[in-house]
Amino acid sequence: MPHAPQQEDVAPAELDMALRGGPFHVALRAAIAARGLPLQRVQHHLSRYGVKVGVTSLSYWQQGARRPQRPESLRAVRALEEILQLPDESLIRLLAETGERPVDRRSGVRSYRSLVEASDVLRGLLAELDAPVDGGLQCLGHHERVGLGARRELAWRESQHIVRAHRDGVDRFLAVHQGDPECVPERMRVHALENCRAGRVRRDHGTGVLVAEFLFDTRLRSGDTFLFRYAVEDGTAGVSGEYLRAFDAAGGQYALQVRFDASALPVRCHRFAQQSAAAPRGGCQELEVSERHRSVHLVEPRVRPGVVGIGWDWE
């Protein structure tokens, strides 16, 4: 069994140079050394993300003897970017630049970090819609359905909300949708399906964020409950690898169902959770795709702050 080279002190400038210039194995070795992590600890952190990679493989990667190519290996590289506190896509980009790039079947994945980075943009869009700090609604239940198309793209999502007003006069809801990387928010469409009508829509191309206003036909009084349903038509990005939902505060029940096109079924699916942008993913559990309905789902009886979602591998 090969042994990991001795850890050495790496200055931030050296790590930055390695990330910019590569090659991949040099940048990976520098990043691991900069964090002072032995490979056994790196492997442990990866396992908490639900990714299994041996110490031998990690050693080969940072020596340049092998390159990550399988879907599981690419998942590990993306997890390493967060574990080692590196910029998004920094290691994946080097894989593309230092040799024949393997097919990244998780290219359509937005990390929790990207959601946090979009928060300033989101605040600006909400301000344009005169959104109050307190929307006046408590979520009792949120049932969400997501559809993947024949091109393996995020084609649409549909949401049903059950809410209770905790102040008088609430008459609208602002829905937020963030598409996969390289999506085109200008081509997305929103649809009011039940007990609401579509109002103003704001979009930001850089972050892929869309904010849509859905208006009620009544003004709720404090204590009133309300049920409404809407959809966002997307289909503007490439291959999708997961869908997640972020929660700022504890709330009611959340259910997520992901349905796949009959001509494009994944080989495996799993659920996951993440407490914060800096925390590792946990709560990983394999999900079996229903052959008849081509879908998987998760249910959170009571949501907590953080993220829950479903990820999948295509082959």
Brief write-up:
The protein has helices at 12-21, 24-35, 39-48, 55-63, 71-83, 90-97, 112-117, 119-128, and strands at 137-148, 154-165, 170-178, 189-194, 197-204, 209-220, 225-233, 242-247, 253-259, 268-274, 282-287, 295-300, 306-313. It has 315 residues and is an alpha+beta fold.
Task: Summarize the structure in words.
The strands form three sheets. A six-stranded mixed β-sheet has the order 4-7-2-1-9-12, with no helix packed on it. The protein has a four-stranded antiparallel β-sheet with strand order 8-13-10-11, with no helix packed on it. The chain has helices spanning 12-21, 24-35, 39-48, 55-63, 71-83, 90-97, 112-117, 119-128, and strands spanning 137-148, 154-165, 170-178, 189-194, 197-204, 209-220, 225-233, 242-247, 253-259, 268-274, 282-287, 295-300, 306-313. The protein has two domains: 12-97, 434 Repressor (Amino-terminal Domain); 112-313, Sandwich (Immunoglobulin-like), CATH 2.60.40. It is of the alpha+beta class. The protein is built from eight helices and 13 strands.
